[in-house]
Amino acid sequence: MAPAVTLALLLALLALLAPGLGVAAAPSGCDAPAPLWCSSPEIAAVCQAESRCANRSRPAAAPVELSLFYESLCPACRMFLVRELFTAWLVLPDDVLSVTLVPYGNAQERNVSGKWIFQCQHGPEECLGNMIETCLMHEAKNFSTYFPVIFCLESGSSVTKNLEAVCPLTCLQIYAPQLDSSRIAACVQGDAGAALMHRNAQLTQALDPPHQYVPWILVNGKHTDELQEQAQASLLGLICQLYQGEKPEACGGLGAPKVPAGCRR
Questions:
Q1: Of 77, 93, 222, 261, whose Cβ has the fewest other Cβ atoms within 10 Å?
Q2: CB neighbourhood size of 106 (10 A)
Q3: Which residues cross the membrane (predicted)?
């Protein structure tokens, strides 16, 4: 093969391996071949390739995972969801925080003639609120669709009535008008809702360590007293501290409001 053809093939190969870098001469002190100039920040600095590597995609950091085990009428649960969790979710990018909601808390269940019956700490209205939010999540599927509705329900004077009548519109009409309220109602009143709530009971009962109160918060699958206190005092600050990727703009000056007592069993 002619030398000119060999050089052309080599240049083409380098272009494929290092798109956007071109085939520039290595600066003094740079021993790495051009395809490896963006393999690490250190090599990029030595080879004076930071600007060329800036537009190369970097591996995304995993989001911080938060699981909230709560009750729909527990005052401390509602305060955490409305003031800390919703606020943090609202200002953080989707790839920074991942949230799982499990409405059940300190409820109890029993099977009567093949049907699940639930008894809740704050009475039948709380059981209804838990069921409404569970069926809403099941129907909506997408967190960004159902979380604003749950925020609206939990931030009002009555969780259950907020779904039915908030003048001039309901929470569902305001935040998720595309959802079919009749399907949610059928879930709440039927076997599907009971099965979903039984699943919430199983998830709650499987907690390790077992929950002692609600809200019960897991961060990256782990619960400790320290994580619980940090999350309730300033969830945004905790997420910003734990996130391993480039810090979003929302991670600025953060306060630490007083934390109300939880709903113990």
A1: 261
A2: 23
A3: none
